[in-house]
Write a structure and sequence with these properties.
heterotrimer; A mainly beta (358); B alpha/beta (415); C mainly alpha (524); B: 415 residues; alpha/beta; Alkaline Phosphatase, subunit A; two-stranded antiparallel sheet; 16 strands; 31% helix; 15% strand; globular; C: 524 residues; mainly alpha; serine acetyltransferase, domain 1; two-stranded antiparallel ribbon; 8 strands; WD40_rpt (chain A)
Chain lengths: 358, 415, 524
């Protein structure tokens, strides 16, 4: 594990930005949630197909068994789509505002989707209370929603525990609410101020919060990712930040966070945990420093290796065998050419891991 | 110079000789500038491009003007479009904030050594009520920082008109310092002491034919009047229902205060909140909040003025210093874009229900009705009844015009 | 005008030594210009006016009643010269000029910053410079190299240090401070109006300082300098980019090895020598700051010219070039030959600031009445003494003197006023309403007046007077340095009569009305 390295083996382009996505069961393809719809991408060849579209950006997509895709979008809708016959199976208008992110539990039994629009609620732009329930939990199979759970908008990240018993949702203000899936009861609340900025330079408002979240393999801790505080929230120069919180016993407590000297600047919005449970990947945007993807040991939090991808990373997955890391994201959108065409700017890359024991 | 002529921080109002009648105060035209500093995205406000590569995530909705859509973040203004004039074809030069703010608040790019007065100073000087103790040009901005806008605020706003036409600044912590009489002195003594001061001071002013002393004495002449209108600057004195209706954010609260000041005799109120619109990063996260606030403020303000019979005389402008790029950068943001952008106006003779100009399918270029800051300022002056092309002959300077090059007003939006 | 003095010399009317005297030059050149422009100058001011004026301009405060009386009683013909000489050697003079140059070089600041400036020796550095009349070029060098040779010069680092490695802020401060020009607008493009100020000069000046780094050493704050880095390119509005060569104005480009793009030169020990002062940061062998001083600053004509124009502006209320810190082709001098002559003389005298100050205050123009001869007389003719507002510090000391007969430079009234009245050399006089509100309603000022109730202080002194006339005399003379008019006496008497049951309050209110009146607020 000390010598773990990442070697890029594939580098593919998609027409537009990839905001989310997941691996196919065979791990050779991904489904990508893009600005202009849902794509499948063959990672060996780079060939891609646009399968369908949301009414706004697609923000997340899961490749279920039997080649069914479940996606969420900024149109507030969840859609089930059958790749085999190219037909939409179900559309569920869950939210009036965006589905920021969706999660599927490990057995693919439950989905959760989080929403919420940040609106001015006070003189200093404290967020207004929610106008619709911020968290929806339902059945993957039937689409039925059985919990609509409260939070403070905007709720930007969601994750299930490895045993599928808990769902956690994190918001703009750095508050994570953990609910019991069966009952919908609030099990714990983690509050961290470290991911949220209140601007004193250009503006007065809140920005940031939790942009990615994962339970650790044991399920008793939560990994959170985002960006550290900034004086000028529009500078995008907060530190690249993860924190690990013990949540399941008593008052939640901060266990570990990115070590001093190991971070640069930029928003981190992707987390992935290696199947071995030994380390995790965090990725996002490079604003200052020399990396935007890095691997960290799960036990002691030290940084193992870094990557500089040259684009903003939005989603990462390890293949089930642990041999590869899939990195999805986007460059800046190019200026349209004379004919109105825009060069492709979505990015999908595959890296081989070496030196990882286990 | 070295200490920085903080013409905004050390506020200067425009008031003097109590004389004229109440009636003129009601008749004069007035203006509220909702200064969207930092520059909002036209795509997420007045010129949506739904379903295109540059349209962004927010989508568009129908309005009460057939065939006209605006951003889905503006449902209230969608019902108000018959009262608004939207310009979708602004095309200007400066690409950086300071220069953009300069051009869009003064009407033109600098031509040193001449310093063109800012819009509020011109309007206060041309239309201000000299009988009013109420400051004629008020800047409401609670944000002490603001990057380039902060630097701009520290500059010379009133230009050649002179510091007395600069704004009184209030908002947030910017209460007006020393406006309350101390309880160590009675009203009578406060007034008598001032009368004695004036007696001594006038002697010097007259003996020395001193313009500096005249300025000094004029400042003291305004003290009583300004102290009398201290309550106008107290946000907490505004009706709770109104405060709730406008929205709780600082910008909305100060927009309400702007209405209150205009109702009570101010001529020009500029409402800002630092530079919140400069969303190079977190564009969606910021605009999801800022645009609905603007939507509601515009809606409440225009309706309130209308219901009070003041819309015919009060111009409301909502604009920033340029627009945002059609393309998104890699930080999920939009960058500066002066080439093709939008703004909205209402009242004081602006024709409602007009959408002037158009951009191409992706919002990259203006394809119809291209106008710039000069056309805009000619329009504003024209509708306020101020000669847009008046010539200035100032000692030692080339000839200047209120709006240069005889730029035409935008006729389509003038009633 | 030079011809005039030449002829005078030939005719033997004026001895050579006096033609070379700066006061004589000022007098002859200004009067020649008056004749040429058909300007009738104001009358010479009387002694009572002069004593208040020159105390304010040189000592930073009004004279006490006793000081005025001593001067007015002096029968000697050269009493004005004698007074000037005495004031120039006074501690008050060092304090006053330190006040002025603190604002001019550093800008106004919050009280915390003022404390830091004092704690780290900047204030003392300025005071010493004027107390000991140190050559201005030497002061400039010490400030810009910022490597103090001993404890006594510690404050020299502060000009750079307080700007916290903000190299653009440093460049934008260096240009007006030592070259009398403003370069801010050359950041994005060549100066629109003054062709000689190019964008390359802006970024060149930035580059001379961009290897600096604030460092807190055992010796105190220091500005270390790196031997590497600081290479970049700047883009103009059209988007084409240019390397930031070490260049400023007409001084040419300082040669420097420039690594190829992408090549990052490593920061090796061999590029440095250790500092002469143990504990100070090591010094690069190729020091950009050093190069700036030796190759740009030393001998640059603007160094002398900027200081002459600034001192002229301090004493005459506007520069020969106006505004005083925009000596560029857009702003021609009103008396070009005089500015040339004085600048040459200043440099030739070894940058002797006190000689320059003395020569101006002893000139005829400085001693004219403050009454403008006609409305048509232009201010840049210097045909009358241009009135000017007292600076915060002048005002604060003078208010203390009026009320208490003595002053402290660190009194709370100084702090309150310097947070309110920011300018020391305003281009024009516009009194903001904020100032009037401050004087009308500021709690601390009010409390200060009320607390001036000692037996030997003004309020008690006035109340101790036996007659109404004496009370008025005491008040007006203390505040304005003259006798009251009849109407003033009756106004004061009436005010006191109406409040005979609370005389202390009444006197305090009269004092307030005097110190807030224009006659007190301005130097004239």
């Amino acid at each position: 594990m000390n010598e773990v390295k990442l070697q890029k083996v594939d580098d593919h382009r998609l027409p537009t930005a990839i905001l989310g996505g997941s691996l196919a069961p065979d791990a050779r393809s991904v489904v990508a949630a893009c600005m202009d719809g849902i794509y499948t991408v063959d990672l060996d060849s780079g060939d891609y197909d646009q399968r369908y579209a949301h009414d706004s950006y697609a923000s997340s997509a899961h490749w279920l068994a039997d080649d069914v895709i479940l996606s969420g979008g900024y149109d507030g809708r969840l859609e089930w789509f059958d790749l085999k016959n190219g037909k939409s199976l179900r559309q569920n208008q869950l939210h009036a505002f965006w589905s920021w992110e969706t999660a599927i539990d490990p057995k693919a039994k439950h989905f959760a989707s989080v929403t919420g629009q940040y609106l001015a609620g006070g003189y200093k732009y404290e967020p207004q209370g929610e106008r619709e329930p911020s968290i929806c939990v339902g059945s993957v199979e039937t689409g039925e929603v059985f919990h609509r759970l409260p939070h403070i908008p905007s709720v930007q990240a969601v994750a299930f525990s490895p045993d599928g018993q808990f769902v956690a949702a994190g918001n703009l203000m750095g508050e994570v609410r953990v609910f019991e899936v069966s009952s919908g009861k609030l099990a714990a609340t983690v509050k961290t101020p470290d991911f949220t900025s209140w601007g004193i330079i250009k503006s007065h408002c809140y920005l940031g919060g939790i942009f990615a979240m994962r339970f650790t393999p044991a399920g008793d801790e939560l990994l959170l990712a985002g960006m550290g505080e900034m004086r000028d929230p529009m500078a995008g120069n907060g530190k690249q930040l993860w924190q690990k919180w013990k949540w399941d016993q008593g008052e939640p407590r901060l266990v570990d966070q990115i070590h001093d000297g190991e971070h640069g600047e930029g928003l981190m919005e992707a987390l992935a945990i290696h199947p071995s449970g030994d380390f995790f990947a965090m990725g996002g945007r490079l604003r200052g420093g020399d990396w935007n993807v890095a691997l960290f040991a799960l036990d002691d939090g030290r940084r193992l290796t870094t990557l500089k991808t040259g684009y903003r990373v939005t989603t990462m997955h390890f293949t089930p065998d642990g041999s590869r890391l899939i990195v999805l994201g986007t460059q800046g959108q190019p200026k349209p050419e004379a004919d109105g065409m825009i060069a492709p700017f979505g990015r999908a890359e595959r890296y081989v891991l070496s030196g990882a024991d286990g | 110079m070295a200490a920085g002529a903080a013409s905004v921080a050390s506020f200067n109002g425009l008031f003097s000789i109590p004389a004229l009648a109440e009636e003129t105060k009601r008749r004069g035209k007035k203006c509220i500038l909702l200064w969207l500093c930092g520059a909002p995205s036209q795509f997420d406000t007045w010129d949506p491009k739904p379903g295109t590569a540059t349209g962004g995530p927010f989508g568009a909705i129908a309005t009460n003007l057939p065939g006209i859509q605006i951003s889905s973040l503006m449902p209230r203004c969608a019902t108000l479009m018959d009262k608004l004039a939207v310009i979708r074809s602004m095309s200007t030069k400066p690409n950086e904030h300071f220069q953009g703010i300069d051009a869009l608040t003064r009407g033109d790019q600098p031509r040193p050594p001449f310093t063109r007065p800012i819009l509020g100073s011109v309007v206060a000087q041309q239309l201000g009520q000299l009988d009013s103790p109420v400051p004629q040009f008020v800047l409401l901005d609670p944000c002490p920082e603001g990057n380039e806008f902060k630097a701009f605020k520290a500059g010379n706003w009133a230009g050649w008109l002179g510091a007395e036409y600069g704004p009184v600044r209030a908002g947030g912590d910017y209460g007006i310092p020393n406006i309350q009489q101390l309880d160590t002195i009675s009203d009578g003594d406060h007034a008598d002491r001032e009368a004695l001061r004036k007696f001594f001071s006038k002697k010097y002013e007259n003996d020395y034919r001193s313009t500096a002393a005249a300025s000094h004495n004029a400042a003291f002449d305004r003290v009583q009047g300004l102290m009398s209108c201290a309550p106008l600057f107290d946000l907490d004195s505004l009706p709770e229902a109104d405060r709730e209706r406008y929205g709780r954010g600082a910008f909305a609260q100060h927009a309400l205060q702007a209405r209150h000041l205009i109702e009570n005799g101010s001529t020009f109120v500029m409402v800002a909140n630092g530079m919140p619109w400069d969303n190079h990063v977190y564009q969606h996260e910021m605009h999801q909040m800022l645009v609905p606030e603007l939507d509601n403020v515009m809606f409440q303000l225009v309706n309130d003025l209308d219901q009070r019979g003041m819309l015919d005389d009060t111009l409301v402008i909502a604009m920033g210093e340029f627009g945002r790029t059609p393309w998104l950068n890699d930080a999920r943001g939009r960058d500066h874009y002066p080439t093709a952008w939008s703004l909205a106006m209402a009242g004081a003779g602006i024709r409602g229900g007009v959408v002037h100009g158009a951009t191409d399918a992706l919002g990259v270029e203006v394809i119809e009705g291209k106008v710039d800051n000069r056309n805009l300022f000619a329009t504003i002056f024209q509708t306020l009844g101020i000669d847009p092309h008046e010539e200035y002959e100032l000692p030692g300077l080339p000839t200047f015009h209120r709006v240069e090059d005889a730029a035409e007003p935008i006729r389509e939006v003038l009633a | 005008m030079r011809l005039c003095s030449f002829i005078l010399v030939l005719l033997g009317c004026v001895p050579r030594g006096i033609a070379g005297d700066p006061t004589t030059q000022i007098n002859s050149q200004l009067s020649a210009a008056w004749q040429e422009r058909k300007v009738q100058p104001a009358e010479r001011c009387d002694d009572r006016t002069f004593v208040r004026r020159v105390y304010l301009d040189l000592a930073g405060r009004i004279p006490t009643r006793e000081e005025s009386r001593t001067f007015l009683a002096d029968p000697r013909d050269d009493r004005r010269q004698t007074l000037v000489e005495r004031l120039l050697g006074s501690e008050d003079h060092a304090q006053h000029f330190a006040d002025l140059f603190d604002v001019i070089l550093m800008g106004r600041a919050d009280e915390g910053t003022y404390q830091r400036r004092a704690r780290h020796g900047w204030r003392a550095f300025l005071e010493t410079a004027f107390r000991e009349n140190r050559p201005w070029d030497e002061v400039a060098r010490q400030i810009l190299i910022a490597r103090p040779s001993d404890k006594e010069h510690d404050g020299a680092v502060w000009f750079l240090y307080e700007r916290e490695d903000n190299y653009q802020a440093i460049a934008e401060a260096v240009a007006p401070a030592f070259f009398g020009i403003r370069i801010e607008c050359a950041q994005c493009h060549d100066h629109m109006m003054a062709d000689e100020i190019e964008q390359a000069h802006y970024w060149g000046l930035v580059a001379f300082f961009n290897r600096g780094k604030n460092e807190d050493t055992p010796n105190g704050p220091r500005v270390a300098e790196s031997a590497v880095g600081g290479f970049s390119e700047f883009a103009n509005l059209e988007g084409s980019s240019t390397p930031n060569f070490l260049t400023f104005l007409d001084a040419g480009t300082v040669a420097e090895e420039r690594p190829a793009k992408e090549v990052k030169r490593s920061d090796e020990d061999r590029l440095y020598v250790s500092a002469e002062v143990p504990g100070d940061p090591r010094e690069p062998i190729f020091s950009r700051r050093q190069k700036f001083v030796t190759q740009v600053l030393d001998g640059h004509p603007l160094l002398a010219r900027a200081m002459v124009n600034r001192v002229w502006a301090i004493l005459m209320a506007r520069g020969i070039v106006h505004p005083h810190d925009e000596i560029d082709s857009m702003h021609p001098p009103s008396h070009p030959d005089l500015l040339d002559w004085l600048s040459d003389d200043f440099a030739a005298s070894g940058f002797d600031v006190r000689r320059l100050v003395r020569s101006i205050v002893l000139s005829d123009a400085y001693q004219l009445s403050a009454r403008r001869p006609t409305q048509a007389t232009p201010p840049d003719s210097f045909a009358w003494y241009l009135e000017r507002p007292l600076t915060a510090e002048q005002l604060a000391r003078s208010i203390q003197l009026v009320l208490r007969g003595s002053f402290q430079n660190d009194a709370s009234v100084v702090e309150d006023l310097r947070q309110q009245i920011l300018e020391v050399l305003p281009d024009t006089v516009e009194v903001p309403i904020g100032d009037a509100l401050f004087f009308s309603n500021h709690a601390n000022l009010d409390a200060f007046i009320r607390a001036s109730d000692g037996d030997d202080q003004l309020i008690a002194g006035v109340l101790a007077c036996e007659t109404a006339d004496e009370r008025a005399e005491r008040l007006i003379e203390t505040a304005f340095g003259r006798s009251p008019t009849e109407s003033e006496t009756s106004a004061i008497t009436a005010y006191l009569d109406q409040r005979s049951e609370r005389p202390e309050e009444a006197v305090a209110q009269i004092v307030w009305s005097l110190i807030t009146s224009a006659e007190f607020r301005f130097n004239h």
